[in-house]
Amino acid sequence: MVGSSGAGLPADVPGAHPLRLVAVTHGAPSAENREAVIRLVDGVASERPELDVSISFVDAANRDVAAALAAAAEPDAVIVPLVLSAGFHVRTGLSLGLDRIGGGAQLADELGPDDRIVAVLARRLDALGLDDEDAVVLAAAGSNDPRAVRECFETARRLAHRLGRPVTVGFIAAAIPRLPDAIEMIREVHPGARVVVGAYLLAPGTFYDSAAGAGGDLIADPLLLPGEAAPHELVDLVLERFAAVDANDWEPA
């Protein structure tokens, strides 16, 4: 299970300060959401047992993100945001949290866009029995941050390339086109086609429930599920984001 599992040293830095990986996710998770995300972090801890791996759930609606992060992370932590696109909470809240922590704490990049995420999305869609005539819509959470919105469109482009068919983006909140509008547009352009929704969402929760009720014919599972081990692609991705943090910043103990 997630928790302190021993101190690990960067491979190329003998005697370096122990590294801690703190996975951070925001929102008010349901029991299913929490279990699904914990399975990902458990997978990371199992893959790298020498690391001290932990997780922090930050309810961004009711707490100061920076203060919550400062309370959860140590000065030598690498914070890996478990978000698919980096909006305000990553670029502002978590960055301010690093300032409050001080020391050598560092922030890794967000998870997406990445072809490993696309591989899992494609597998979720294939599990529905995707037909050649189906129209695919990628349901994304949405953000007020234009860069995060562009990242969602980039994921849709990569998914379209992998599937060999167009993929339309629909946002659940904060950005346009909204998911119900995107589905309605497809029905007008392709009458009679089955509309299949791919969930560009990390885990079950309020956004997934909204996507399921947006008017599509079928919806794929989110990337993580409470009843199964996290896909190996996502475990690898978290570890890669962790490893990409500049090890030269770590000082010998």
Question: Would you write up a description of this structure?
Answer:
This protein is of the alpha/beta class. The chain folds into two domains: 19-111 and 228-247, Rossmann fold, CATH 3.40.50; 115-220, Rossmann fold, CATH 3.40.50.1400. The chain has eight helices and eight strands. It has helices at 31-47, 65-72, 88-101, 115-126, 146-163, 179-189, 206-212, 232-243; strands at residues 20-26, 52-58, 77-81, 106-107, 135-140, 167-171, 195-200, 218-219. The longest helix has 18 residues, at 146-163. The radius of gyration is 19 Å and the shape is globular. The model is unreliable at 3-15 (pLDDT under 50).
CA gyration radius, whole angstroms = 19 Å
The H-and-E topology, N to C, reads as: EHEHEHEHEHEHEHEH
Number of helices: 8
What is the CATH topology of the largest domain?
Answer: Rossmann fold
Low-confidence segments, given as residue ranges, are: 3-15
Arithmetic mean of pLDDT: 85
How does CATH name the architecture of the largest domain? Answer: 3-Layer(aba) Sandwich
Number of strands: 8
Q: What is the strand content?
A: 15-25%
State the end-to-end CA separation: 27 Å
Strands ordered across the widest β-sheet: 2-1-3-4
Number of domains: 2
Largest sheet: 4 strands, parallel
Q: What class would the helix/strand composition place it in?
A: alpha/beta
Please give the CATH class of the largest domain: Alpha Beta
Question: Looking at the structure, what is the overall shape?
Answer: globular
* Helix-residue proportion: 25-40%
